[in-house]
């Protein structure tokens, strides 16, 4: 990630040495680059040049208000999956007309809040949800704009935990029954059919799975049109991968050029294209800074015990995910050894990286790379560990997006029974 690079013997975020941020705010610390956010956004804008594309940032990847506000000001909409995420978008003054609401388990109260806010579209994932949405909308005296999230049964060629477009997944409506459910939707009083939607998985690095899904959706859209159901937009979900190690990410333009070709060929060039990118908007715009507490040289393995843990970054232990580990002030003269980077939590699964060659000493700072997506948002307070602070770097300046939690706040709402 170009916004996190060495200058001399120091790792910087834009024009700020990471060691200065660790000094001022302590560790573990999430550090984001505003410039990297803007570059990620620009890649989508360039790819969409001259076409009707709405980029709805998949905010589950990183929902800090400071990040959301940046994307809002750049013109993004939002893909939300809960009433909580809706509240965040409204809190920054985001345009509800640019919100799509995804998720398999929408509650009636969440539907109600989204209808009142006036979201662009509900991405409906089951017949039961369709029924409930129609009822809630009627009770509100409104009509819910709906896409069906279709499960196209394609293999996204990614980690099984983050692959969502296969038959065995809980997501979406199987493509073979979609025409029937669309007819049902079109007949319901509280529902207006406006789009078609799919999301096949995450960290995808090839166009193949997208194009397979698109082809299936195009067949569906044509058959709907024959039945008089005309949609206005096509939502292809998120899922574009980033480079963690040696992956070759798929640039938005490489995908969209092919998508537009296919739409044009089918005479569907007028459809609005909606995208829901999360990881590719923020993943390489953030690092997790941590300090080495102890080095422990064992017979079988060497451990670097750091002050960040699985509660701060769950991806390694949950998905076996690989994140780069860079010394903030490398010790070029020291001999390197092979370390497992582990946290202080009382679980063997508490590791951040394995088998890394590093020349480090106690007290050194390490940057866990590519931590901007699904990092802080998946953190917990396990072991009564306050969640990390989040900082946004902007050139040679920086802003606290979220202060470190205090220990007292972690148990503030708790109480004991009278004795
Ligand atoms: N739209 C829907 C309906 C989704 O379920 C997701 C992500 C996205 C958009 C954004 O996908 P992205 O562009 O970020 O790939 N925690 C996992 C990733 C889970 C993705 C869940 N859905 C991880 O850390 O790898």
UniProtKB/TrEMBL annotation:
The modification N6-(pyridoxal phosphate)lysine is found at residue 60. Residues 30-372 form the Orn/DAP/Arg decarboxylase 2 C-terminal domain. GO terms for molecular function: diaminopimelate decarboxylase activity. Substrate binds at residues 279, 315, 319, 347, 374. Residues 37-282 form the Orn/DAP/Arg decarboxylase 2 N-terminal domain. Pathway: Amino-acid biosynthesis; L-lysine biosynthesis via DAP pathway; L-lysine from DL-2,6-diaminopimelate: step 1/1. InterPro entries: DAP_deCOOHase_LysA, De-COase2_C, De-COase2_CS, De-COase2_N. It catalyses: meso-2,6-diaminopimelate + H(+) = L-lysine + CO2. Its cofactor is pyridoxal 5'-phosphate. The keyword Amino-acid biosynthesis applies. Its EC number is 4.1.1.20. Pyridoxal 5'-phosphate binds at residues 239, 276-279, 374. Pfam families: Orn_Arg_deC_N (PF02784), Orn_DAP_Arg_deC (PF00278). Keywords: Amino-acid biosynthesis, Decarboxylase, Lyase, Lysine biosynthesis, Pyridoxal phosphate. Belongs to the Orn/Lys/Arg decarboxylase class-II family. LysA subfamily. Specifically catalyzes the decarboxylation of meso-diaminopimelate (meso-DAP) to L-lysine. Homodimer. HAMAP family: LysA. This is Diaminopimelate decarboxylase.
């Amino acid at each position: 990630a170009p916004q996190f690079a060495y200058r001399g013997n120091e790792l910087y975020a834009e024009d700020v040495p990471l060691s200065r941020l660790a000094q001022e705010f302590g560790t573990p610390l999430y550090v984001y680059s505003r410039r990297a956010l803007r570059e990620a956004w620009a890649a989508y804008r360039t790819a969409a040049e001259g076409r009707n594309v709405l980029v709805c940032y998949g905010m589950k990847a990183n929902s800090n208000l400071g990040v959301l506000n940046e994307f809002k000001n750049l013109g993004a909409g939002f893909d939300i999956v809960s009433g909580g995420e809706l509240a965040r978008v409204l809190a920054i003054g985001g345009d509800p007309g640019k919100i799509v609401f995804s998720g398999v388990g929408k509650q009636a109260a969440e539907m109600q809040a989204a209808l009142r806010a006036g979201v662009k579209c509900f991405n409906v994932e089951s017949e039961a949800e369709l029924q409930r949405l129609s009822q809630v909308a009627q009770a509100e005296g409104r009509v819910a704009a709906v896409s069906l999230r279709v499960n196209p049964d394609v293999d996204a060629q990614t980690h099984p935990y983050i692959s969502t477009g296969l038959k065995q997944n809980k997501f979406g409506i199987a493509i073979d029954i979609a025409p029937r459910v669309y007819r049902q939707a079109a007949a319901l009083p509280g529902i207006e059919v406006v789009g078609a939607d799919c999301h096949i998985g995450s960290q995808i690095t090839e166009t193949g799975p997208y194009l397979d899904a698109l082809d299936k959706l195009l067949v569906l859209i044509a058959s709907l049109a024959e039945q008089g159901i005309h949609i206005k937009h096509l939502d292809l979900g998120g899922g574009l991968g980033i480079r963690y190690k040696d992956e070759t990410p798929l640039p938005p333009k490489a995908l969209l050029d092919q998508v537009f070709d296919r739409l044009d060929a089918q005479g569907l060039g007028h459809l609005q294209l909606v995208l829901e990118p999360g990881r590719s908007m923020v993943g390489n715009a953030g690092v997790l800074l941590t300090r080495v507490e102890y080095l422990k040289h064992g017979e079988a393995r060497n451990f670097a015990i750091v002050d960040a843990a699985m509660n701060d970054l769950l991806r390694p232990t949950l998905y076996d995910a690989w994140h780069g580990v860079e010394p903030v002030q490398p010790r070029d003269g020291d001999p390197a050894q092979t370390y497992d980077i582990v946290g202080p939590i009382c679980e063997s699964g508490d590791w951040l990286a394995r088998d890394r060659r590093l020349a480090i000493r106690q007290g050194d700072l390490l940057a866990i790379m590519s931590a901007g997506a699904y990092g802080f948002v998946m953190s917990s307070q396990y072991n009564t560990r306050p969640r990390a602070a989040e900082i946004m770097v902007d050139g040679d300046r920086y802003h606290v997006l979220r202060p470190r939690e205090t220990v007292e706040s972690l148990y503030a709402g708790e109480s004991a029974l009278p004795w």
